[in-house]
Design brief:
Elements (H helix, E strand, L loop, with lengths): L2 H14 L2 H19 L8 H10 L1 H16 L1 H5 L2 H5 L5 H31 L13 H21 L5 H18 L18 E3 L3 H21 L7 H17 L4 E3 L6 E4 L5 E5 L6 H7 L1 H6 L9 E3 L9 E3 L10 E2 L2 E2 L2 H13 L11 H10 L5 H9 L3 H19 L2 H16 L10
Parallel strand pairs: 4-5, 5-6
Antiparallel strand pairs: 1-2, 3-4, 7-8
Helix pairs in contact: 1-7, 2-4, 2-7, 4-7, 4-8, 4-9, 7-8, 7-10, 8-10, 10-11, 14-15, 15-17
Length: about 425
Amino acid sequence: MSVVTAAKAPLLAEVRRGFAPWAGLTVLLTLGVTLAASADRWQGGWAETAAQLHNAVLITVPAAAAAGCWQGGRERRRHTRELWGTVVRPPLARFLVSALPTALWVAAGYAGAVGLALLATWPYALGDGPRPALVPTDAFVSGAAVLVGHAVGRLVPSRLAAPLLAAAGYVGLGVTAAAHEGSGRYLNPAFSIMDTRVPVWWQPTAMAVWTGGLAGAAVLAYAARRRWTALLPLTAAAAAAVLLTQAGDGLWRTDPLVHRQVCDTSVTPAVCVNARYAGALPRLTEALSGVTGKLKGVRNLPVRWADRDGGPREDEAQLPSLTPLGWSFVRGRLTDPGMFAWQAVGALELRGDCPDDAVSTADEAVENYLSPQPAQEDFDRLDAHGDARARAALAERRAARARLAAMGGAERRTWLSAYFAARAACDAKGVPAL
């Protein structure tokens, strides 16, 4: 009878009941709680969701190894090792019958958490699409960790082996994931990625061969009758390791969407956002409508507010950043549209390489006219109760605001055109007086 045939019926029994389903449920709940606690930082962005799920491998792999280790020590805790030794079934079959159900359930728990995270992101997604490239490999790596942990559990006669293995795995993966140098980090399945990066097409496969090869070698070295067969998966793992380390930073490339923008040219300046958040463009245009409405007919403005990686071009102003998610932008909405508009006005005033220390009374008056700082009244109240110098500065600012607001439409457009021309030239002295 083959190993597969001998193990089939007991394997199904182990899958349906016992420790394995609880291990999978534990992984699902652990990831669920972890992801829910940080939902503001990823929910609504497919790239952020994919990065968060991949980085969660730092938790699932040590947890999976601990689960496998605990299951591996089951026979010792039940004092049935000698009894199992009299069974005709080969040692490898006995090992797989005990270890595979836990590995399958752990992988299923991870996959379930991925599915729930994708469902949570879908209603708020704004531009790009789901990124499942790393999911099969990450689930496979978690299952492979169970097999390695199972072998450790059979070898180490201690109830503390499982928690110690989990702690060691977490520290080891965490240290190498945070390393900025050394080729070893490219072999880390929990290697942290940025949401602006995507793997090359073969990276997930190579990582699966690397981790699966190590797990297979551990299993065969422990349980196979011909232990030299462990060299086969070990050779495959070594080949994948060479490929991964030689590629280095080439394992990842910049997401093409990072370099694309989607624009609303119906207003001046135009409003452009990174293509990953194209669906947010109407809301951003609405948040800036008060500013763009007051700038109709004004000359010498930037062509657009741009959301480019690396900063705006010479004829552009920087759109206030939407990332990282969870601060100014959560689940497809601005948390403070007033602050967003105020920051956008500041970007119009200080463009390119102009120094940001040449702030004048005119600058403050323009900001107050186009989009006042949300906390401006609080600052004014503090100055009103300050010393004589603070009160005098406040009186000067209020007078400048009043003069700009009292101008007629044509006069104000002319003044603002001259103001933005001076600002574009980084000529603080050329700013017209108020």
